[in-house]
Amino acid sequence: MDPTLLIKLVGGLVYLLLGGDILVRGSVALARRFRVSPTVIALTVVAFGTSLPELVVVVRAALTGYPGLVFGNVVGSNIANVLLVAGAAAAVYPLYYGERSIRRDTLFMLAATGLLIILSIGGLLGRFDGLILLAVLAAITTLTASEAAQAYRDSELKTPMEWVLGLPTNPWMIALFIVAGAVALPIGADLVVNASVRMAENLGVSETIIGLTILAIGTSLPELATTVVAAVQKRTEVAVGTIVGSNTFNLLAIMGVGAVLSPFPIEIPREFFMIHFPVMLGTALLISVFVWLRRPIGRMAGVAFLAAYAAYLAMLAVRTVAAAG
Amino acid sequence: MHGSGSGRNDRTSDSGAKETHPVGRTANLTYRRSVDIRTRLVFAFFAVTIGSLLTFGYLAHGIAERLIGAGTIDQLESLAGSGSDALEGIVEGWQERVQLIGSRTQLRASLDEYGATGDSAALAVVQRILDDAVVSVRSVAAIAVYDRRGNQLTGAGTARNAPPELLTPRSTASGSQSPLFLEAMPSGEAYPEITYSMPLLQEGRRVGFLFVVLNGDRLVELTTDTTGLGRSGELMVVAPDPSGARTLHPVRHPLDGFNPEGPILLTGEQDPALMALSGVNGVEREGLEDYRGRSVWAATRFLPYTGWGLVVKYDADERRAGIDEFWDEMIALALALSGIGLLVALFLGLRFAGPIHDLAETANRIREGDLSARAPVRREDEIGVLARTFNQTADELQHRMLELHEFQKFFDVSLDLLCIAGTDGYFKRTNPAFTTVLGWSEEELLSRPFLDLVHPDDVVATTEQIERLAEGQPAISFVNRFRRSDGSWIYLKWNAYPEEESGLMYAVARETSARPQSDA
């Protein structure tokens, strides 16, 4: 395979992750400067900002007409979040649940999963469907606003990146952060989408496969890193909550914004109904069952999750080879 | 990046467990007021990477442009060369065909016979030969035979462009028997028609003329073959025209602004068509436009026998498209590599600036009063030495502070009066014994000249003593009287030592029953 594609993919992912991070950092600094309340910052800038990489990739892919990438990225991220991220973290240290609201949050996730699948029946996801997803997101956000704000006050932006960059206070630095982030994100999205599509062409596989695997894992790397690091430090109380929240957000916000911004309805490849939607629903149910039974996800379960993820990837590979042969 | 970040978190949680100082959080915030050195390093590294890569890309772009340009010129030259060779071959083929027809012995014999006898049977033979030739010889559209005085005798086939006024046979004077190219006429979208004449000689006498109109199917085949010409390139054959030059064949882009009546094929400061016709063989790449108004590069050839010109041209945009694509790819790669550079910068930033960052944080914590704070020493380079030295200094500082603390305790619990005073006549510091013995609070003692408290009779002696101290002589067992807060007087015996650099006196006093020396 052309090595420039790999360079572009990796470079693009770096732009996406760092660009999203410094844009959030600059925006938070700006909001603080204008004395916006931390609650509002947490619910808007931080909530959306941390998912910016996925968002710009999905919008970019939708705009350039690669629906396989759009759905592949979101569905693949949700599958990877449970099987790969939770699995890897649990294999390091069992995942316990700290938040009282976690059971309810799994219901939100299951509902969002179901809603997206139902809206997708018919094979197209249009602007109106996107609005429905965003309306449900708004409703859930309103319901959980006070808790989210509280959680934010407790955690205070404890991402690894904060240790590296800190928050700027000098107006010029704030401007630099925001501009650099706003420039880096589309560059990253462009590089990643471009490289993904051409990689699919080179490997002779569908964009969907690239979206489900390379892109999904790539955009899930920060979650993977933070969660595994937390597990190494034996602080796993928030891991499951973060994964459940991230999955819900992916389904409602990313797909919602992607569907609304896309100039034409996003076409859903058939294989999603056959395989990927059921797998996504299955993983959502899997983690929900653990939560509902109040059973921590132990090391054995973690290893089993990872094995399931490996099996899923192997299944994709076999199907691809079979399709090619 | 996250791995390094986790290491950072590890240390924080470790030091957090040990750390008891309440201002630790404030200490953390101090350095976050601005962007830290690691971030600056990351930005700087990124700027250098992208700057050098874009410079490289820009230079490479220039080189690529030059090389692709040179390649294009070579390609145009070679296409023009092979095009003119092919065209010459075609022209020779035409000539041979005319020769083939004109060299038929029976044609000339019958024509001679007809000229001599007027026998219509002889003319019928001529007619049959002509009919036969039109059918059997390729590319022949029409043939006409004239007698030696220039009157048409017969003909076969059809030609759109009848050549009557051209029939002043140019070859009349010539004794040559070879075919002569007369002219080529474009015929709209169909084949051009090429006219040859040939004198017909019988036993050295001219018996008539042969005119052959050939259709230029081979010419059209040559010009419509776009092999090596890309999406837009064209090979054109042009003939002189009263208005300049005109094409002899359909063009590649007839719907794109081509005017068949338009005499000018290419416009520009120097028209390559005219250049070709005027005998210039070369390549032109600046300031040329073709009939579509597009900027083109063109190579020209002059064909002496027919007087035609050959023009091979490329759209400049199409040549540029490759270069532009290269440039886009270069930018994308430069950006992607810079992204990877950014990752490396982040790692290096953490690795190199991290310890400096830790040192700053540790120094800050010490400043805030946490004397137990120490910088981690992980390396043996300059930063490691700095951290080690820093830690040793901190150890010493802590030790000194401990000693100070111990002496402070002595200072506080002493029954004797201990003080530091200036030669300006004020106490700078007094110990609690002062308050116990004299009854004045420390503020009261520090806020007025101490001579105010000295018995009026002792003021002179005390002043003298202070002057001596100011000159550097210690005072031993000097006695004077001090006023208590209740107004009573107390004898104090003083030992005082001056410190010249600071101008301060360190003095110890205790109550004594002894009278001052002056009274003794």
Characterization of this structure:
- The complex is a heterodimer of chains A (325) and B (520).
- With 325 residues, chain A is mainly α.
- Chain A has a single domain (3-324), classed as NCX, central ion-binding region (A middle domain of Talin 1, Up-down Bundle).
- Chain A has twelve helices and two strands.
- Chain A has a two-stranded antiparallel sheet with strand order 1-2.
- Chain A is globular.
- The model of chain A is unreliable at 156-165 (pLDDT under 50).
- The model of chain B is unreliable at 1-33 and 164-174 (pLDDT under 50).
- Chain B has a domain at 414-511: 2-Layer Sandwich (Beta-Lactamase), CATH 3.30.450.20.
- Chain B has a five-stranded antiparallel sheet with strand order 2-1-5-4-3, with helices on one face.
- Chain B contains twelve helices and 17 strands.
- In chain B, helix 4 runs antiparallel to helix 5 (120-136) and helix 8 (316-367) runs parallel beside helix 9 (382-413).
- Chain B is of the alpha+beta class.
- Chain B has helices spanning 2-18, 24-31, 37-102, 105-117, 120-136, 217-224, 272-277, 316-367, 382-413, 432-438, 442-446, 459-470; strands at residues 140-147, 152-157, 180-185, 193-202, 205-215, 234-241, 244-247, 266-268, 282-284, 288-290, 296-303, 308-315, 417-422, 427-430, 475-483, 489-499, 504-511.
- In chain B, a hairpin with a 4-residue loop joins strand 13 (417-422) and strand 14.
- Chain A binds chain B through residues 4, 7-15, 18, 160-161, 163-170, 173, 187-188, 190-191, 194-195, 221-222, 225-226, 229, 232-233, and chain B through 1-3, 5-6, 8-10, 13, 31-36, 38-39, 42, 329, 332-333, 335-340, 342-343, 346, 349-350.
Tally of individual helices of chain B: 12
- Do you know the CATH architecture of chain A? Up-down Bundle
Can you tell me the residue ranges of chain B where pLDDT is under 50 for at least 5 consecutive residues?
1-33, 164-174
Count of discrete domains of chain A: 1
